[in-house]
Amino acid sequence: MGSGYGGKHTGETAIEAARLAKAVGQPVRVVWTREEEFTWAYFRPAGLMELKAGVQRDGTLVAWEHHNFNSGNAALTTPYSVANQVIQYHPTKSPLRQGSYRGLASTANHFARESFMMSWRMP
């Protein structure tokens, strides 16, 4: 039981706690320092989003292109009605350990999509 509440680790901490508890013969509490967290934990995947759209003069969306490099494909598809779509997730290799936080990739994809929509709609 318990939670990470901001911790970005997988099961390594639980394994570490189990080994320590076994060694001392009683329950233990594992608390990582900030340095340990950044050394041993994983990071949310960095990503690059490339978006393009075709829009008629009346504001009708007629084409949509969204490329997500590395940050995940959750919620990648657009909720907007548009006939011509190219939507792709491109996994890449990272030198850092990567893992999901609470919102998986949907947070990044939604933010990129809505920021893009706002950028061409503003006068």
Task: Describe this protein's structure.
The chain starts with 11 loop residues before the first helix and ends with a helix. The longest helix is centred in the last third of the chain and has 16 residues, at 106-121. It is built from three helices and three strands. The chain has helices at 12-24, 34-40, 106-121, and strands at 48-55, 61-69, 84-90. Strands 1-2-3 form a three-stranded mixed β-sheet, with helices on one face. The mean pLDDT is 85. The protein is of the alpha+beta class and 123 residues long.
Number of extended strands: 3
Structural class: alpha+beta
Helix percent reads: 25-40%
Q: Count helical runs.
A: 3
Q: What is the end-to-end distance?
A: 52 Å
Radius of gyration: 21 Å
Let me know the largest β-sheet: 3 strands, mixed
Order of helices and strands: HHEEEH
Report the portion of residues in β strands: 15-25%
Provide the low-confidence segments as ranges: none
User: For the largest beta sheet, what order do the strands appear in spatially?
Assistant: 1-2-3
Overall 3D form: rod-shaped
What value does the average pLDDT take? 85
Summarize this entry quickly.
The chain is α+β, with helices and mostly antiparallel strands and 123 residues long. The protein is built from three helices and three strands. The longest helix is centred in the C-terminal third of the chain and has 16 residues, at 106-121.
Question: How do the helices and strands line up, and which of them pair or pack?
Answer:
Elements: H1 12-24, H2 34-40, E1 48-55, E2 61-69, E3 84-90, H3 106-121
Parallel strand pairs: 2-3
Antiparallel strand pairs: 1-2
